[in-house]
Every structure is written in structure tokens, then in C-alpha cells.
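Fold sample X.
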Amino acid sequence: MGIKPTYIKAIGIELLSSYGKRFTNDFDENKLIVAEVTTIDSKRVRNRVAGYVTRKINTGRHS
């Protein structure tokens, strides 16, 4: 059973709307921020969310 991409996107969009100013274009920094502001226990899910947020920051498609 895998992780649904819509779940990752929903969390990422919520984090960007709430904590958008804290995120940078560095994956490792974003990984720490995701761990700090969420209660995600799974390292894999945390990394996928951080990767999604980093991609959105780098492409400039976040609000």
C-alpha cells in the first residue's frame, strides 16, 4: 500500500498556506521545518511532503 499523491499535495498546500514564509529552496531545511510543524511520524511521508514543498518553492507556483 503506497502513499497517495493527493495526500502529499494536500499536506504540502496546507503547509505552504500556513508557513509559506519559513520554507526555502533547500530540501534539507524544508525537511526539518516539516518535522517541526507537523506530527508526521513516517520519515518517508515527511520527505515526500518536503520534496513537494521544495518543488513548489523552486518553480514559484505557490501562493
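Fold sample Y, listed below.
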Amino acid sequence: MRALAGKSPLVTVGAVIVGLVCVAALGAPLLATSDPIDQDLTVVLKPPFWWDEGSLRHPLGTDHLGRDVYSRLVYGAQISLTISVLAALLGAMVGVVAGLVAGYLGGRVDAIIMRVVDLNLAFPLILLALAVVAILGPSLRNLVIVMSITTWMIYARVLRGLSLALREREFVQAVRALGAHDIRIVARHVLPNVLPPILVIWTLEVARVILMESALSFLGLGVPPPTPTWGRMLAEGRDYLTVAGWIAVFPGLAILVTVLGINLLGDGLRDLLDPRLRRQT
């Protein structure tokens, strides 16, 4: 109980951060002060409102094209969350199926699936993402596909190990002895017992995908302009760090705080869903 209580403040902080980011993404049209792609060359490099030359019309200042940084941040949350959530879901579906099949059936099927996993893991994930995006071209759909390709192996590895252990458990052996089909056994008896680690992995993979999407956008391989993304805002602001640092600082902070919040939430979920901790409470 003490260990869990010690984690609860951080879990609360993580949940609040994730909640605020979700609200910003869903309510972007209402929260934004202007169109994120509108250019106004009369207010180029306007500082944040707390500076002498700033104004509440552009609370976080403007960039080199006179676009509102705050509005671009809010709309950028939509892109980051859309890509990360969809990619993590797609990767989870593929990885969970592959891991359950490999672990439950074993034998040659297990060997083939695990060799495919090893082949994917042999490449650095960021280089694999760069290669696939360069081939398919930068777009929202292609980014989701690329991110899911770099995600599914984690689920397959973990689920394979859990399935190997679960298939030898007494309740699974009993159901098999009663004549239940393998698909029914996996769906009704194996899958429910591996949902907690799946949920934890999913939350952590969402954070990792946000970082990777930002890296690809920073390199110009993300969602094509003028769609605002945090990584592209960082790339656009690197040439103005000494004269207008807010262009890069605010999207960098958005990435940092969002990833931190998701990691804190995932860490708390891991502790809450760990049966050993539940027994201690």
C-alpha cells in the first residue's frame, strides 16, 4: 500500500497532463485564437504577451511568418495524438495476435514469427522509420503505418512469453481437455489474463511514437506543411533561437511535458495492475 501511495501523486500528475493535452487536441477549434496556418507579415516574430512588445492576441508570440504559436501548438496536439494513438492501436493489434499465436501454438509457427520479430529489431527503429517514410512519402496515413511497423514487435515479444506460461496453466489445460477450440481458449482464457501488460505497453508506446513522429517532422519527413506539428515547429524555430527562441521552446516543452505525463501514467498503471502489488495491499 505504501509503495502504491507513493506513486499516486505522480500518477495524478500524469493523468492531469494527459487529460489537458487531450482537451487541447479535441477542443483545438474552440481554444485556438486564430487559424494556425494564417500568415500575417505585419506581426512577424512577435514575442509572448508578458514581454514589452507582446500582446494577448498572440499569447505565445508569432513565428517568422506571423503565424500564432499558441494556435499552432494546440492544433499540433491533434496531429501528435492522432498519429500516436492510431499507430499504437494498430501496432498493438498486430503484435498481440502475433505474440498470442506464437506463444500458444509454439513449434514452427513460433520460430517463424520470432524470426520476423528479430529481423525487425535488427534495424534501428528510427532508421527503419526513415527508410519507410522516404519510400512511401510523408503523409498522415504513411506515418501511422510507419509507426505501427516500429511498434508491433514489442507486443509480440512480451505476449509470446506470457502465452508460453499461460498455455501450461491448469485452467487452460482443463478447458482444452473439455474439447474447447484453440481460438476460444485464446480469446476467452488467455487474452483476458494478458490485458494489463498490453495496456501498460500501449501507454508507453504512445509516448515513444510522439517522440519519433516529432523527430521525423523535425527532419522534414512528417506530415507535409502547412499542417502544424510540434516537430516541424521545432525545425522552423532552430534558425531563430537567438532572436525568437519561443518558436522552438514552446513546442519542445509541449513534447517534453506530454511524454512525461504519459510515462507517469503508464508507470502508475503498471503498479496498479501488478498482481504482486495488489496482494500487498
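Sample Y note: Confidence is low (pLDDT under 50) at residues 1-5.
Also: The first helix runs from residue 2 to 26.
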